[in-house]
Write a structure and sequence with these properties.
two-stranded antiparallel sheet, 4 helices, five-stranded antiparallel beta sheet, alpha+beta
């Protein structure tokens, strides 16, 4: 049987693999210090966005809520907001109006393109435009 610390680390890696980070994930200090053979795992607190992404992953939605994607029909980049029937509702990464896209028309967004779009948005915000 694996130790609780090993199980926590395994869970941390599995969650990270689907894009979910629980910063407070740890061995529960109260039960970890006791004589019980198995301590409890404390999942901790997380933001609403993280909770929403975790729920999306558990529902088996692909891509999960919060994932940056590209609408391959026109190249627009957006972040998945929700799944509606056979469509995916996307919010532009760099700001703008949300739109719906058929689920089969979304593709992965390159991390460097997501970063560029977010940087452009942040620069526009700081410039007050």
């Amino acid at each position: 049987m694996r130790s609780t610390e090993d199980v926590v680390e395994s869970l941390r890696k599995a969650l990270a693999g689907v894009g979910v980070i629980l910063p407070s994930l740890c061995v529960d200090p109260a039960t970890g210090a006791g004589d019980e053979p198995f301590a409890l795992v404390d999942l901790g607190r997380c933001s609403v966005r993280t909770a929403e992404r975790l729920a999306s992953v558990l529902r088996g939605e692909c891509p999960a809520v919060g994932t940056p994607v590209v609408d391959v029909r026109d190249g627009r980049m957006g972040e998945v907001v929700e799944h509606v029937g056979g469509a995916v509702r996307l919010r532009p990464v760099a700001g703008g109006r949300p739109w719906e896209c058929p689920a089969e028309s979304v593709g992965p967004a390159a991390p460097e393109e997501v970063l560029r779009a977010r940087l452009r948005w942040a620069n526009r915000q700081s410039a007050g435009t």
